[in-house]
Amino acid sequence: MKFSGKIEKCDYSPIRKFHPYQQDAEHRGSHIYHFNIGQPDIKTPKVFFDTIRDFSGEVLGYAPSQGIPQLIDAVQIYYARIGCRLMPQDIAITQGGSEALQLALSVILDDGDEIMIPEPFYPNYNTFITMAGASIVPVPTSPEEGYRYAVREKLEAALTPSTRAIMVTNPGNPTGLILSPEERQVLADFVIDHDLFLIADEVYREFSYESGELFSFASMHRLAEHLIIIDSVSKRFSATGARVGELICRNQQFMARLMKLLQARLSVATLEQLASVSLYEMGPGYFDATREEYRRRRDVLCEELSKIPGVSFSKPSGAFYMMVTLPVDDTEKFLVWLLASFNKKGRETLMYAPAAGFYKTPGMGRQECRLAYVINEEEIRRGIQLLAKAIEEYNRQ
Amino acid sequence: MKFSGKIEKCDYSPIRKFHPYQQDAEHRGSHIYHFNIGQPDIKTPKVFFDTIRDFSGEVLGYAPSQGIPQLIDAVQIYYARIGCRLMPQDIAITQGGSEALQLALSVILDDGDEIMIPEPFYPNYNTFITMAGASIVPVPTSPEEGYRYAVREKLEAALTPSTRAIMVTNPGNPTGLILSPEERQVLADFVIDHDLFLIADEVYREFSYESGELFSFASMHRLAEHLIIIDSVSKRFSATGARVGELICRNQQFMARLMKLLQARLSVATLEQLASVSLYEMGPGYFDATREEYRRRRDVLCEELSKIPGVSFSKPSGAFYMMVTLPVDDTEKFLVWLLASFNKKGRETLMYAPAAGFYKTPGMGRQECRLAYVINEEEIRRGIQLLAKAIEEYNRQ
Predict the structure, then answer these.
(1) What structural domains does chain A harbor?
(2) What are the pLDDT digits (tens) for A145-173?
(3) What interface predicted TM-score (ipTM) does this complex get?
(4) Residue B371: beta bridge partners?
(5) First vs last Cα of chain A: how many Å apart?
(6) Of A41, A106, A263, the CB nearest to B59
């Protein structure tokens, strides 16, 4: 049987391809420190479960395709609190940020279109864009420049007549980079000047450790017709399994077309939407505690990493990821070695995400990896101490 | 801004476009008997809510992309009970039947491909297929022949070199038609002879009122490499708001490619999957009671309809829909009249789904409508008595 040419061009998740090695290590009884995944260990707020428990309906019916009005209201209030005035018709509830992204791309892309994305970037973007018939044009960055990309010349160099949008994750995954106020203006000028969409994945918004400012591009009114925001309760409230996200856009031509797709896929899970209302109603105090926890973890991670000879990194300002350059030949090979050969006696090792999968440009990222700090401080310290030992041993062979 | 050429070709849900008229009628205080929607009124089994209430985890994490193993097991056992042996790798849990369908189409379709679908059909198929870059070639049927389509000559006539699959809903929406054993063989022969996929939407499987047989194409082993089943807990367990469905396929080349898409969209809501396990564990007794309820409703509906002069229909064997030909000029115009002008004093009216939206061929279905019997017997009787009165009055004007 023949399959779609598009699906043949897609890859499996590069983060998950080391799973067999992980399973082997686990079967041998190894404890693994997981710096490789973005599943937070922070407790999901109790109010989420309480709301679901309190549901007293007898028929679990479809929710409206756009989302339940209470959740749309709650999202509107949340955005108002961070300085963004939205109307209910600017907000659609989606099956996680992933569906929001897929929908946004489906509404704007034709075969042969291009999307600019600063690399390194979240690898699932590859699948969504390939399936929409378009392709990614990477905006190159470098570890030495701290992965900064919002520089007019860099953006202009990646532009072609086929460019339809630029997609950014801010705060960044995998870099942890947060755009400066000047850089935001550069991006805004660029999309307005070239009549592009700016697709802003802002799911890590609250994880901002320096300024304390909660920024959304939605606060920049001149972007109104150009901006599509991807948002989600997943990371914000440590509720990744709820699969509740949001697509936000003030361009009503866009939203009218989006509605066709929302109607076709019917609705998002009803109970999860109700419970998400209660998450948004918790107020900003919740974030303060969570943010403080992640800030401490980041600091511990950077402190431990800075002790290892030959390791380099820029201290990240946000999200819960960072890119690190390791003094090894190849971070994919090194990861396999960590799982298959390192410390078999001590039965402790670690995992990270090798960076090659975050780059579109072949050959890039071979010495880099992404570390996620969604494990506790003690585990971070122990894991990075193991990393130091492993690098030494690996390079001695 | 320019939008996707594909999205411009999609329509809004034809079932929902009468919503403004409905709202006006409701604002005037009219009571509407809803024969227009497929939202069952049967209670969702209590065990669904109990399971969610009993969840004791603290972090609501991502589920595996293929689905949680307990639910895959439960689906496997359910299929074994109806005579279909599946392996866990043949089953993927999806965000409702809608996502299963979208995923199936994404894996197999290229731009310019064609899918054969007997018309009338579920209108959302239009959006999914258009967005995949393909087009629908309808297999025509007629009310006089009871909408039967599985006739070799009819199928051959719709086949072209671009045909990739035939898609059927069995039991049928909107027709309520159930394929006979001979017709199933005709379809199986056809897809094998022409090396096509058979996409079988079997979400109404349990709603079978004549033979009592619970049929799945998965029981036909010679179809193994050709068959993709779309399934869902939505209608089966009156849990449409759970958004839990299943894609079932024994073709491992297909499943390997599907996994790329499952990984990219991460997972289906974790609690809804756990609760769906408990639905499948209820056993076949649950269906007997539900089936009996729907059978009675169907009988009452047919009894009342047969009293109206000029109305014609074939008694449906399954699902909870039926197609009815009305003695009016145009069922869309008549519906607007029912909502805007009929019985303003009595403040009672009814809604159905006009059939034009279920046809691909322009001009078809103008005298037909779809009635859903997801309201209770008394409401069905009252609603159809109103219909009789309305037809008379409408034609007198």
Answers:
(1) 5-43+286-396 (3.90.1150.10), 46-280 (3.40.640.10)
(2) 999 999 999 999 999 999 999 999 999 99
(3) 0.94
(4) B322
(5) 47
(6) A41
